[in-house]
Amino acid sequence: MPVLTRSRVKLLRSAQLVAQDLVQHRVQQCQIIETSVDFDSLLQQALSEDAARAAQDDDDDADGWEVETREEEAAHSPADPAPTPTPAAEVRSSAFTAKRSASSPPPLSVSESSSTPPFRKKARRGKKNPEKKQSDARMERSRQGKEAKAAKKKAGASSLNHQPSRHALGKRTELDVVDTGCDHEPTLHVSKQGFIGRRQGVVEAFSTVEAYIEAGYERVSWDGSTTHGLAGFGKRVFGLMVGRPGEPTYMESVRRLATAITTAKDKMGFGNRQDRRGTFSTIAYGISYGGGQKRPGNLRHSAQNIRAMEELLANPDMQRQASYAKSMFATYFPDLYDEYVQTLESLHEDNPLLRPLFDGCAWPAVSVNFPPNSFSHIHTDAGNKANGLCPIFSLGDFDHTKGGHLVLPDLKLIIEFPAGCIIFIPSATLRHGNIPVRPGEFRTSWTLYAAGGLFRWAHYGFQTWATWSAKNSKNTEILDADKKAQGERWCRALEMFPTVDNLRARADR
Fold it and tell me: Which residue ranges have biased composition labelled Low complexity (predicted)?
């Protein structure tokens, strides 16, 4: 008899936690996300679908996961003969079907309990089931949901698509904005072509809050309960300080993730390589293009480090934070988010061997800065997308008023950065660093990012600029148009940072 397996319960629970974070996200003037998802109904719907599929064999699972469940062998006394094993059942869920590509991991094998679970009542033959009408109604809603999902898929939708609710769109117009006072474009360090940043030297700056204040920096106090935008360049919002959601289990999830990152560090090997940004151990993992790569590909690591990172990326607490960041990204920076989605999907179509971090992640790569005191010197991550926004996740146990601040020298700001919060910045073009925490305290961080080379590769038809220009060497009109576009690309990139008026106009539609 098909049952709700452990893997499926874990999937439903992980999605429920993410939704709870979005519902409970309350800020002083900016309530970001609200959802009306009823997970009890989804759970009952999933159970009804299992019962229906157990009675018929359909093959409509080309794009979904198939998880085979097997009967566990139970010990029985000699006087009590063992029951006949139940055949393996296919477990599917229309509410949560993960898209499987050629590079996706193989199906998982989990065990099916030999006894009927307490929450699943078996109807006796020959007797009417009082819940039949309700079950039929749920199955009809499920059928309609499948049709809607198929229509979206036909129209090009994917797990990366995110449509903020009207309530969320309305709340973002109340965003509290921190005016950085920077209204000139040269503040951001961008390359000539406009795809990546311009490399800046690493600077070992001050190590205390007091030293920065004496040097003329402005201190931004933040307790992590509110959400603020960083505005400049004609009142455009180019950064976001995302407050913690009010859901009570969120901080426990943050603490578990900090422990998981510490455990992952113990399983890895880092050799004698010293990172240019600081003295902490770090690892970059995922899809990238640059640094001598001939084409986009998965960053190479030892088998030991791959196992540890795959285990960390499968952690539901890490995926929970990443999903929260993705929702914020799509809500406040919709144009930039759409560019990310379209580019990543086209890259995966061009090369199915590219492996995403996990299903639905809006960024192709992750960088983990390991504890106990992960702080970086002043630098830029010049290889990232020039106007791309990288969410930085702060974790640990420390006094955020004494250390762990985010330092932005180009803006002359130091921002308090409590554990459990997220800050979005254009890390390729805006210099940034951290103030170390005090001795005896614990801090770690991680960030999601996208290499600018990936967008350049896709822009020139999935080839290098040199190859593209060689193919069009005799077509001066195309080359001249490209040269002109290079000068305009950064201006168009800045326009993807919304103004508060843009956010209000979108909410009023």
Answer: 109-118
Cα 191 to Cα 489: distance, rounded to the nearest angstrom: 11
* CA dist 36 → 58, 170, 348 (Å): 31, 16, 32
Q: Which two tokens stand for residue 217?
A: 């920096």
* Domain co-membership, 219 together with 304: yes
pLDDT at 84: 42
Q: Read off the CATH number of the domain in which 268 is found.
A: 3.60.130.30
In this structure, are 117 and 188 located in the same domain?
Answer: no
Please check whether residues 59 and 201 belong to one and the same domain.
no
**Domain of residue 43, residue span:** 6-154
Residue 260 has pLDDT above 50, yes or no: yes
224 and 137 share one domain? no
Which residue do the tokens 């932005």 mark?
Answer: 408
Q: Please count the other Cβ atoms lying within 10 Å of the Cβ belonging to residue 469.
A: 16
Domain assignment present for 333:
yes
For residue 420, how far is the Cα from the chain centroid?
15
Return the CA Rg of the chain.
25
**What tokens appear for 230 in the block?**
């960083």
149 and 209 fall within a common domain: no
What's the confidence (pLDDT) of residue 188?
67
Element (H, E) at 140: helix 132-154
Residue with the bigger pLDDT between 174 and 252: it is 252
Low-confidence winner among 256-265, 287-296, 411-420 (lowest mean pLDDT) = 287-296
Domain boundary among 122, 154, 186: 154
Indicate yes or no: pTM above 0.70: no
Tokens encoding 57: 């064999």
d(Cα 364, Cα 343) in Å, to the nearest integer?
10
**Coil, strand or helix at 482:** helix
List, in sequence order, every beta strand (DSSP E) within 212-344: 218-220, 228-232, 236-242, 282-288, 297-298
Residues 187 and 149 placed together within one structural domain of the fold:
no
Query: Within 10 A of 256 (CB to CB), how many other CB atoms are there?
Result: 17
Using CA atoms, how far residue 264 sits from 26, 283, 364, 454, in Å, is 32, 11, 20, 28
Asked whether the bond before 83 is cis by omega within 30 degrees of 0, the reply is no
Nearest to 396 by CA among 499, 280, 285: 280
Last residue of a domain, one of 119, 154, 189: 154
371 token code pair: 């504890």
416, 377: one domain: yes
Instruction: Give φ, ψ of 111 to 5 degrees.
Output: -95, 145
Domain count, the chain: 2
Q: Which of 284, 243, 266 is nearest to 446 (CA)?
A: 284
Percent of the chain with pLDDT over 70: 61
| Residue 486 belongs to a domain | no
For 298-339, write each residue's pLDDT tens digit: 999 999 999 999 999 999 999 999 999 999 999 999 999 999
Cα–Cα–Cα angle for 430, 499, 330, nearest 5°?
75
User: Do the domain assignments include residue 480?
Assistant: no
